[in-house]
Structure formats: C-alpha cells, structure tokens
C-alpha cells in the first residue's frame, strides 16, 4: 500500500515485526558528500569553490580558498576587509595563521 505522502505502509500481525517473512535484507551504502566554500559580504560574494575528494586541511584551505579567493577579494574590499570563519580546524591551522599574517589579512576574533 502506498499513502499520499509516498511512504510505503506495511500491515502485519502483531508481534511478527522481526519474523523472517516480514524482513528484507538491505545493504546501505552511504553516498559521498560534497564540501563547498564561498565568501559572502554585504557588497558581494566570491565564486563558489568545491573541495573535490579528501579532507580539507590547513594547506588545502590556504591553497584552494585563501590564495585564489580571499586575498583578491580582500584587496577589492580594501582596509575594511575582515575575514570571518567558523573556527574549523583547517581555518585555525598554523599555516593559515602565518598566511593571514604575511598578507596582512585581519580575522574576526
């Protein structure tokens, strides 16, 4: 039976929930996820960046977002630019701290 909600309804006798005739073996495979990054401000936004495969490390964050997206965007904004992030580990990695300091990019604390 199918309901209006699209759910499959199953009717069975009481206390037979786990009876072999009422169970179906199923293999669940979790699908892969996708991680995206974008810079957003009152006056505009950066392009969307998709991290393909693997874990995002401080090195990847620096090389794939800070250098190609954040630094040029910060230059366009000027002295009022402040970087805000969510304190994820890659955002707080030493390599990221050094990059921000080297390029004079201020971060919101």
From TrEMBL:
Protein's name according to its UniProt entry: Transposable element Tcb2 transposase
Highest taxon above the source species: Eukaryota
Top-level taxonomy: Eukaryota, Metazoa, Ecdysozoa, Arthropoda, Chelicerata
An example Gene Ontology molecular-function term: nucleic acid binding
